[in-house]
Design a protein that fits this description.
Blueprint: E1 2-7, H1 14-29, E2 34-39, H2 58-69, E3 72-78, H3 86-94, E4 104-111, H4 118-130, E5 134-135, E6 140-143, E7 147-148, E8 151-152, H5 155-184
Parallel strand pairs: 1-2, 1-3, 3-4, 4-5, 4-6
Antiparallel strand pairs: 7-8
C-alpha cells in the first residue's frame, strides 16, 4: 500500500514536525507499506491553470502524480488567517474533482490557538468530501504550545498521532479489501 504524508505549507516548522513524526511512526510500525513524505517546501510548484494534472512538468507533475497513486494520504496543514494555506489549496486545485475517490485521507492541523479548530470542519473537510475522500474522522489538532524546538512535547499529541496512523492504515487496508471483494464479483 502507498501512503503519502503531505506537509501542506512552504513556511513554518510545526506542521513539518508533526508530519515527519507521522512518517517515522508509519515506517516503524508498518514497514511493509511504501511511505512518501511530500513537504511542499521542498518543491517548486506551478499555480493551477486548469490543465489536467498529468500535463504539468517537473515538481508539479511529481507531487500530483504521487498523490494520485496513493492509497492513503495524511494531510498536515497549518492554520493561516483562519484558513488553509494557499499552497495546500493549490494542490487541491491541481488535482481532478474525484482525486481522492477510493482513498483514505486523514488530517493533522497545527494552529496558534484552539480557536482555529473550526477551520477543519468548515473548510478542509468539505473540500475533501467534494473530492470524494474517505476521511478518518478523528483528526489531530496541535496547538503551538505542544511543539517546542521542532519536537512534540505533549505526550497526548503523540498518542493521538499514533492512533491516527493506526486508524489510517486500518481504514485503508479495510477499504482495499472491500474493493477487491467487490471487483472479484466481475469476470473482467
Amino acid at each position: 500500500m502507498r501512503i503519502v504524508a503531505l506537509a501542506g505549507s512552504i513556511v513554518g516548522s510545526k506542521t513539518k514536525t508533526a508530519t515527519k513524526k507521522v512518517v517515522e511512526m508509519l515506517e516503524n510500525k508498518y514497514p511493509q507499506h511504501e511511505v512518501t513524505l511530500l513537504d511542499l517546501a521542498d518543491y517548486t510548484l506551478e499555480f493551477s491553470d486548469g490543465r489536467h494534472y498529468f500535463e504539468y512538468d517537473g515538481d508539479t507533475k511529481y507531487v500530483t502524480e504521487t498523490i494520485m497513486l496513493a492509497d492513503a494520504i495524511i494531510i498536515g496543514t497549518p492554520t493561516f488567517q483562519a484558513s488553509i494555506p494557499a499552497t495546500l489549496k493549490n494542490i487541491f486545485d491541481l488535482l481532478p474533482v474525484s482525486a481522492f475517490r477510493d482513498n483514505v485521507v486523514s488530517i493533522i492541523v497545527t494552529a496558534g490557538t484552539a480557536k482555529h479548530y473550526l477551520m477543519v470542519e468548515q473548510q478542509l473537510k468539505p473540500i475533501l468530501v467534494y473530492m470524494k475522500a474517505q476521511i478518518v474522522q478523528p483528526y489531530v489538532f496541535i496547538e503551538e504550545k505542544d511543539i517546542h524546538r521542532k519536537e512534540i512535547i505533549n505526550d497526548d499529541v503523540v498518542f493521538r498521532l499514533e492512533r491516527l496512523v493506526e486508524d489510517t492504515v486500518l481504514l485503508a487496508e479495510t477499504y482495499k479489501n472491500l474493493q477487491a471483494n467487490r471487483d472479484a464479483k466481475y469476470d473482467f
